Amino acid sequence: MAYEVEKSDEQWRAELSPAEYQVLRQAGTEPAFRGEYTDTKTEGVYSCRACGAELFRSTEKFESHCGWPSFYDPKDSSAVELIEDHSHGMARTEVRCAQCGSHLGHVFAGEGYPTPTDQRYCINSISLRLASAEG
C-alpha cells in the first residue's frame, strides 16, 4: 500500500525514539497501564506521533480499564486503516494510520461497552500525541 507519508526505515529510526519505532513501525505494544494517555481526561485531538495526522478526538475516548487508551470511533473513518492480523495465534484487526501506515493498536467489537459503536479502538499511547483544546 502506498501512503501519503513515505519514509525510509532509516528516516523513521532517526525521527522516532527506539520505543516509538518499536510500536509504530514494528507493530509492538507498550506495557499496559503505563502509557501517557491511558487515564487522560484532557479535551483535544489525538494525532499520529509519526506523521501528525489527526486520528481520534477526546470526545470519543472512554474508560475501558484495559490498560490502553480506548476510543469508540476514529475522528474520520478514513483516518485509520484496518488490517486483519493473525499474529500471536489470534485473529484481530490491526489499526494503522491511513496517512503513514504506522501501527496504532487494535480494534475490538461486540464487547458490550456502553458506547454508540460497540467498538473499542485499543490504541498505544506512544502512537499518539494529544493537542489540548485549551492550548
Physical arrangement of strands within the biggest beta sheet: 3-4-8-7-6-5
- CATH homologous superfamily placement: Peptide methionine sulfoxide reductase
Beta strand %: 25-35%
Distance between the termini: 35 Å
- Output the structural class: mainly beta
Tally of structural domains: 1
Low-confidence runs: none
The whole-number mean of residue pLDDT values reads 95
Order of helices and strands: HHEEEEEEEEE
Organism: Streptomyces zagrosensis
Enzyme class: oxidoreductase
Protein name: peptide-methionine (R)-S-oxide reductase
GO biological process, one term: protein repair
Description:
- It catalyses: L-methionyl-[protein] + [thioredoxin]-disulfide + H2O = L-methionyl-(R)-S-oxide-[protein] + [thioredoxin]-dithiol.
- It comes from Streptomyces zagrosensis.
- It is an enzyme of class 1 (oxidoreductase).
- Residues 9-133 form the MsrB domain.
- Its cofactor is Zn(2+).
- It is globular, with a radius of gyration of 14 Å.
- Strands 3-4-8-7-6-5 form a six-stranded antiparallel sheet, with no helix packed on it. A three-stranded antiparallel sheet has the order 2-1-9, with no helix packed on it.
- Helices cover 10% and strands 31% of the residues.
- The N and C termini lie far apart (35 Å).
- The chain has two helices and nine strands.
- The chain has a single domain, classed as Metal Binding Protein, Guanine Nucleotide Exchange Factor, Chain A (Beta Complex), CATH 2.170.150.
- It is mainly beta.
